[in-house]
Amino acid sequence: MAPDPRVANFLTRNASFTASYTPAPSMADIIKKREPFIVIVCCTDGRGDPRAFFNLQENEAVVQANCGGRVTPDVLRTLHVLDLLSNDGVGTVIVCHHTDCGMINVSDDEMIEIGKKKWGAKKGKVEGMWFGAFEKGKAVRENVKGEMEVVRRDRWLGKRVLGLEVLGFVLDVETGKAEEVKL
């Protein structure tokens, strides 16, 4: 298989990036900072990248992305690590989904069928896999609320003495506007 030519383009752009690169603060300096982390859980879809639509500055927030912006066990693990490593822990978790997300247009059962066809001999391993698709037809705002509740119910984060702010947003990919979702 030939290398994807887009990767060579990434490396060319990286050379330009390094020409004016200023090193970021060390992890030790980031952890020592005197303000709690803001963590944004979002989808991997580039149309819903909070670094762009919130115009985030470097190290202003931790962005944790996965297909659908789900609060998975690995997202919770990341929140736990950040909460323990920083002096002030995680202060705010933002769950941010977007309209026209692929994960609201397919079910886990459909993903399993696609996997059986695509992966052939491995199809027995596909049965019972969880892909994190949302219930088809369910409103994006309701999905955000559900993921906010996962954070709030977490046995560690949900019981912190200092409390935890959990916010939700839906980005409209047609207008670029992020609207807050209230529980």
UniProtKB/TrEMBL annotation:
Q: Does this UniProt record's set of keywords contain Metal-binding?
A: yes
Its EC number(s)? 4.2.1.1
InterPro entries given in the database record: Carbonic_anhydrase, Carbonic_anhydrase_sf
**Pfam families according to UniProt:** Pro_CA
Entry cofactors: Zn(2+)
Q: Which UniProt keywords apply?
A: Lyase, Metal-binding, Zinc
Domain of life from the UniProt record:
Eukaryota
Top EC group: lyase
Catalytic activity as recorded in UniProt: hydrogencarbonate + H(+) = CO2 + H2O
What family is reported?
Belongs to the beta-class carbonic anhydrase family.
Q: State its role.
A: Reversible hydration of carbon dioxide.
Name under which the protein is recorded: Carbonic anhydrase
